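User: Predict the complex with adenosine-5'-triphosphate.
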Amino acid sequence: MTQPILQLKGVEKSFGSNQVLRGVDIDVAPGNSLVVLGGSGSGKSVMLKNALGLMTPDAGQILFNGEDVTHDQGREREAMRARIGMLFQSGALFDSLTVWENVAFRLLNAEKMKRSDAKERAIETLKKVRLGSSVADLYPAEISGGMQKRVALARAIITKPDLIFFDEPTTGLDPITADAINDLILEQVKALGAAAVTITHDMASARKVADEIAMLFEGRIIWRGPASSIENSGNAHVDQFVNGRADGPIQPAI
Ligand SMILES: Nc1ncnc2c1ncn2[C@@H]1O[C@H](COP(=O)(O)OP(=O)(O)OP(=O)(O)O)[C@@H](O)[C@H]1O
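Assistant: Here is the predicted structure with adenosine-5'-triphosphate placed in the model:
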């Protein structure tokens, strides 16, 4: 078996008495696209933050290319981050920076690249997500939501990462723009040969971008399989989610 690029082993995380992750086991092979489904509040973002090292698990391990990075800090943590791209929910661009400064953020700050070189790389990367150089000097507030997602995608791919996390990449977009963003994500992830982990509750996105789908429920991965088998999972939780039914084993988050 190929060595997974990312592995979560028995990851647990609680906030006070709220046990959010209760032993998450999941792995992602290099170049593979995994989508993690889960209801609102099921802990998808918490799982992602633990995987990225933005939160430390209470128990369990995070392995990156087979190495235990659970408690890495400083330089070691930075070395892992340099290999990882991230597209946060809502794009999360810095309002006070221009589009190109957002895209080149890592190059300017972590890699201390010369501004003129970084700008050139940012403009090249913007082209990959079909944005012309005319947007480079605009501020995020001056461009549409769909364009902001493309800028966020450019920022996630500029360092040519081996692994990219996508947190609800199509939230807040109309279905047509969402589909175009999914197309771009697929195209760019394939071009890099990167692995992708996407968390979403949008089934249309999941079907489109996933090689494999996993379902997070009550703090554990309760089902995992090829994207093509999602309609015939034989799992009541997955079925309810795929068909968007309010009644079933998963309670609506209201
Ligand atoms: N920093 C934190 N401190 C305390 N509780 C937290 C923190 N982060 C998340 N939680 C709790 O963890 C639970 C899971 O939240 P999380 O954001 O991971 O859900 P999610 O599956 O991503 O939901 P959604 O799909 O709605 O974004 C929630 O009950 C939330 O209140």
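The pocket of adenosine-5'-triphosphate is lined by residues 15, 18, 20, 38, 40-46, 201 (CB under 6 Å).
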